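Case 346 in the screening queue. Each case pairs one protein sequence with one candidate compound; here the compound is 2-acetamido-2-deoxy-beta-D-glucopyranose. For every case the pipeline is the same: read the inputs, emit a complex structure as tokens, and attach any notable structural observations.

Predict complex for case 346.
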Amino acid sequence: MGIPHPRIHLKVFIFSVAFTLLTIGIVRFSKDPKNASRWRNEKIFPNGTHNVTISRIPSKDELRRIWIQKKIERLSSKFAEGAGKTNSSFEKPKYKPMKEANSRAHIFYYAWYRNVELDQVSRHWNDDDPGMQKDAFGLYKTDSLSGIRLSFYPKEGFYSSRNETVVAKHMGQLKKAGIGVIVVYWKPPGFEDSPEEVLEMLLSAALENGIKVALHVSPYYNWTLEHLLEQLKIFLKKYGSHKGIYRLRRRNRDLPVFYVYDPFDLGSSAWASVLSPTGSSSIRNTELDGVFIGLLADQAHRMEIKKSQFDVLFQHFKSHCRAFLISEAQNCITTNGSEQTYVRDD
Ligand SMILES: *[C@@H]1O[C@H](CO)[C@@H](O)[C@H](O)[C@H]1NC(C)=O
Ligand SMILES: *[C@@H]1O[C@H](CO)[C@@H](O)[C@H](O)[C@H]1NC(C)=O
Ligand SMILES: *[C@@H]1O[C@H](CO)[C@@H](O)[C@H](O)[C@H]1NC(C)=O
Ligand SMILES: *[C@@H]1O[C@H](CO)[C@@H](O)[C@H](O)[C@H]1NC(C)=O
Ligand SMILES: *[C@@H]1O[C@H](CO)[C@@H](O)[C@H](O)[C@H]1NC(C)=O
Ligand SMILES: *[C@@H]1O[C@H](CO)[C@@H](O)[C@H](O)[C@H]1NC(C)=O
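Case 346 output:
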């Protein structure tokens, strides 16, 4: 093979330019009078000259919002058409549902969605919209669809994670997909987006489908390792005996599993002091012992994760985990499902 001939590059370039110009042309000179009048004012004076001013070019955000709104309207009407008929306009999936959940397959699960019907406010359906009003926690308050920030329309609509019917459906879907562990975004009670109020319900719904729950510990306001460990102790006291908690057999005990997001905010030596068996405040072989899985977000953290004595590392983003590996002692889980889940055996 080798480097393609420069003419091919030229052809591709000319084609791209032509395509771009065509696209711009279609948008700019759209015959749709609504679109034209929306973004463009044109006036012809008696002397024949045109006074053309572009009154307002919509921002990328606005275009995206319009596009999503249209998509939602279109999909909503399709769902409405499909409802009640045995032959919906959506094709049935072709895969065979799994008979049971497999605890080797983990998925990240967020129980932080809220909607106006159940919660009076909508949450997390419209993150990052600069035009949206925020509440005291800095969360977006709107209940309007205009701020929706999604690429896909949720099958259960803009649901509330507190809605038991919806959660039960999710767990049924996960079981059918063969997923055995949900890694639930977690902050201690009292911190924004803490799943505390739904945990009991989530644990039961999961367990009913043979699915286990692990915490995805997330950095919270003013967090320290001492505070976090205190909170995990409280968590284990309250939920530790629940059969829905995911545990792995280590050192002859079934230890709860904790994923930790951005652990190095707290320093790798601080982690080492609790995760190393010989650390000054080691939790190993205490009631707080667990399988701790640290996020590797950045190549620069390769050494940190080793120093900090995490049991396993994981990645939350699409990237090649293996490239980061520095020794066979380092293990790796990717979340896109292509890699095996490795857990250190000691
Ligand atoms: C045509 O008319 C407009 C509005 O009266 C004026 O601003 C413009 O200068 C005129 N153009 C020419 C070429 O006379
Ligand atoms: C041309 O249009 C702009 C915007 O509509 C307006 O502000 C301006 O006065 C117009 N110019 C003339 C000469 O009419
Ligand atoms: C149901 O869907 C199938 C496959 O798309 C189609 O061939 C059939 O005509 C549909 N039946 C009705 C009653 O719409
Ligand atoms: C819970 O979700 C179900 C299914 O989407 C819906 O029919 C029901 O109205 C919801 N309940 C509340 C209280 O919002
Ligand atoms: C956050 O932590 C700092 C330093 O430990 C402390 O001074 C401050 O009072 C804490 N803020 C709150 C709201 O707890
Ligand atoms: C998952 O990630 C690996 C490594 O980046 C990549 O080769 C593979 O195509 C990805 N699989 C999917 C399903 O995205």
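Case 346 observations:
- Residues 24 and 30 are 10 Å apart (CA to CA).
- Residues 29-39, 318-346 have pLDDT under 50 and may be disordered.
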